[in-house]
Amino acid sequence: MTDFEIEEHEYDVLVIGAGGAGLRAAIESMALGCKTAVVCKSLFGKAHTVMAEGGMAAAMGNVYSEDNWKVHFRDTMRGGKMLNNWRMAQIHAEEAPDRVLELEEYGALFDRTEDGLILQRDFGGHKYARLAHVGDSTGLEMIRTEQQKAASLGVKVFAECTINRLILDKETNSISGAIGYWREKGNLILFKAKAIILATGGLGKMYAITSNSWEGTGDGHAMAMMAGAEMVDMEFVQFHPTGMVWPPSVKGILVTEGVRGDGGTLRNSTEERFMFNYIPEMFAAETASSEEEADAWYDDHSLGRRTPDLLPRDEVARAINSEVKAGRGSPHGGVFLDIASRRSAEYIQKRLPSMYHQFMQLAGVDITSEPMEVGPTCHYAMGGIKVNAETEASSVDGLFAAGEVAGGLHGANRLGGNSLSDLVVFGRRAGKGAAEYAKQKDNFSAIDKEFIDTTITNMMKPFENEGGDNPYAIHKELQDSMQSLAGIIRTEDELIQMLNKIDELREKMKTVTVDGNRWFNPGWHLALDLEFMLTNAECLVRAAIERKESRGGHTRDDYPQTSPELSKVNFILKQVDGKTQVESRPLEEMPEELKQLFEDD
Ligand SMILES: Cc1cc2nc3c(=O)[nH]c(=O)nc-3n(C[C@H](O)[C@H](O)[C@H](O)COP(=O)(O)OP(=O)(O)OC[C@H]3O[C@@H](n4cnc5c(N)ncnc54)[C@H](O)[C@@H]3O)c2cc1C
Predict the structure, then answer these.
(1) Distance between CA atoms of 592 and 601, rounded to whole angstroms?
(2) Of the candidates 348, 363, 373, 430, which lies 20 to 30 Å from 182 by C-alpha distance?
(3) What is the SS3 string spanning 479-545?
(4) Which pLDDT does position 596 carry in this prediction?
(5) Across-strand partners of 36?
(6) Strand, helix or coil at 189?
(7) Which pLDDT value is given to residue 2?
(8) CA of 470 to the centre of ligand 1 (A)
(9) Cα angle 146, 152, 158; round to 5
């Protein structure tokens, strides 16, 4: 066994990640009587979820009484181009309203209608105004209230602590624990756990332009793969249409869809509202065909069809990309998003306070009097760990997943607002699933000591290497190449180039070198995260090569149409003997009563 000192802990359920999903999972597991801990890379209360702005989608019917779970389910499936796990989409739509009310019970102060109900706003792809929100700081309120609830139940928190590997019992191939390090001093920490829930969020940091926080390095995706878990839909990455494009230091920071939900429109350099030129067949029947009709819809949804500015994100991102390519972009390579000429300054500041400050402080732009410049930014991973829809169990015994790290719910494209509701609906279910699993186990499973030794040796290698590349240089190469070779528009040639690039970067990783020691060493942390990013990049690219069609967040220049054959399959990825294998698997058949909801399509 290693000479390094290792701090050890035992928990029935270990939750990795303290975002909206991890906290909700921990609350459930603790409430069901399991000794539960949460580990997170950042300070407690600072997970990526705090950045969520626009709101959480739930068919509460507070603004439009016509809304119900069936309409939400249909919107989610159509937004995901029908590749979603239909059962997850059904559970999500059915349970989201209860989870919003539960957050209110925890103390969340949602915005209100005049009648005192929870207010709901419009977002892309949702037929009715459906997003419960707290101004444009909904994620912050979610974390604040979940955190208080978790603390009140006695959930133990290990903050600024990074897990590096999941540990399996060699005999049974089931989860027995996890090993990681304290970020501050690099001291090692080992958790024995009967069940583990991964709630580690997204993987956007492998791209150069992204809205993701520094934590979005896809650790959970990669650790699950390394432990043998099946992944689904990894080719589908959402490029949100509206990120800031200028100044360079803030490129990629998100501009919430709430701007368009509250009346903002997209214009090109000729001031044309170009989205009217990009209405796809699938959404034509319910999308306005003139500016007058679109504007009337904002005032009263019964007066017309919805504005094309609020088509699903994949459609809008592609349209912006085409306008810029055609030379009709804004001065800094995006398009214009204008709310100033359409709403009063008072309305904008009340409904979109964070956007107002973001542009004023970061770009010197007053959005109440001038348009914003926006363009696509890597935002969300639809793909992730394949889970059971009811329990969130992965294909590895004892391993569960919820939130952005899990795949299936969103299919080929996520609708805005469906993530925050996903976190609490499936966070709760994962907490329950893991707690029930842990309760069946009398003892902790065996920790594989040989595996611990190898893990620690690998973790320390960047200090022993000499003369290799530094991790920042390798990260930049990965980000730049993913952006240009596996980004919003893809081709087979470029994807193969990307696979070769990944091999090249893996070679460089063998000698990646960091200065200093384990104390306060972000270079070392990045070197360890890079292994995760490369694992995920390979997984994404291999799936993208196999999906020879354009659908949702995956656009192939060499296969611009959707393929009827590929509309029937998910791609499942798995590591076997360290190699990533891809297999196409038929979608599960939807029951007749749900199929009927799509009869008009
Ligand atoms: C700017 C922005 C605005 C958004 N707005 C909305 C919105 O309005 N509505 C909506 O539905 N969605 C929105 N989204 C998407 C949504 O915020 C995310 O999908 C969601 O918050 C992810 O939550 P999560 O709980 O899965 O993970 P996260 O909130 O990302 O949390 C991950 C947690 O895992 C921890 N972690 C990661 N790796 C490790 C490791 N190796 N060891 C230990 N801990 C680890 C992190 O420290 C963190 O605590 C937005 C996203 C962005 C970027």
Answers:
(1) 15
(2) 430
(3) HHHHHHHCCCEECHHHHHHHHHHHHHHHHHHHCCCCCCCCCCCHHHHHHHHHHHHHHHHHHHHHHHH
(4) 97
(5) 13
(6) strand
(7) 66
(8) 27
(9) 75
CA of 139 to the centre of ligand 1 (A): 9
DSSP code for 415 = P
Question: Measured on CA atoms in the order 349, 355, 359, 365, is the torsion positive or negative?
Answer: negative
What is the CB < 6 Å shell around ligand 1?
16-22, 39-42, 47-49, 51-56, 138-139, 162-163, 180, 199-202, 211-212, 215, 219-220, 254, 380, 403-405, 416-420, 423
Confidence of residue 3 (pLDDT cuts 50, 70, 90): confident
Q: Which residues of 505-539 are buried (b: 16+ CB within 10 A; e: fewer)?
A: beebbeebbbeeebeebeebbbbbbbbbbbbbbbb
Among 85, 29, 6, 58, smallest CA distance to 384 is for 85
Helix (H, G, I), strand (E, B) or coil at 401: strand
What span, in angstroms and rounded, lies between the C-alpha atoms of 25 and 401?
9
Q: What pLDDT score does 394 carry? A: 98
Q: By the 8 A CB rule, do 94 and 120 touch? A: no
Inter-residue contact 381 to 219 (CB < 8 Å): no
Ligand 1 centroid to residue 414 C-alpha, Å: 14
Q: Which atom of ligand 1 is nearest to the CA of 21?
A: 25
Q: What is the pLDDT of residue 1?
A: 55
pLDDT in tens, 374-392: 999 999 999 999 999 999 9
Pocket test of ligand 1: the residue of 404, 414, 415 to mutate, having most ligand atoms within 8 Å of its CB, is 404
pLDDT digits 0-9 by tens, 69-105: 999 999 999 999 999 999 999 999 999 999 999 999 9
Q: Give the pLDDT of residue 34.
A: 98
In the reported structure, the alpha carbon of residue 202 is separated from the centroid of ligand 1 by a whole-number distance in angstroms of 6
Residues recognised as catalytic: 240, 260
* Euclidean distance between the first and the last CA atom of the chain, given in angstroms as a whole number: 62
Bond into 247 cis (ω within 30): yes
Q: What percent of the chain has pLDDT over 90?
A: 94
pLDDT in tens, 105-114: 999 999 999 9
